[in-house]
Amino acid sequence: MVKKGSAQRIAKIALMGAMLYTVQVVLSFLPNIELVTLLIVIFTRNFGKDGITACFVYVALNAIFSGFGLWWATYLIVWPLFAFMVYKLKKIDSWLIWAIINGFFGLCFGALFALPYAVVSPSYALSYWIAGINYDIVHCIGNFAAAILLGKPIEAALKRVIKIENK
Question: CATH number of the domain that 149 lies in?
Fold first, then answer.
């Protein structure tokens, strides 16, 4: 077990955040197909609150390399909130259920992203969300497929690495 505040724990959190950012950049040519959601589930299920903290590293890296904007403020809320939800549900042991959760999150992503616009203009927020619903559907399908196909194998590989590390 890694002690709170230890250099090893800090490095683990930084590495998870960097992995989230890297997988986003590598797959950025695919519209709304991403593995960030899946990795947040795997990291948070296996590392608890450190998975949530890794989301903040991920969001910070996005700001450093892409700039600050309203989108970034939304990232600052949406990704850690998703990780917190995963943390509360981490005892779920079915990858079918996690795939459904991941798909639902993908479907809701545009609506969550539109929330800050609702402060300025609810009608603009609604039109923003409706205009992107096709992307949310793709996001839903991609997240579901990624979790069904890759969730269990990636988590098993991570657990093998952790087991080797703890020896």
Answer: 1.10.1760
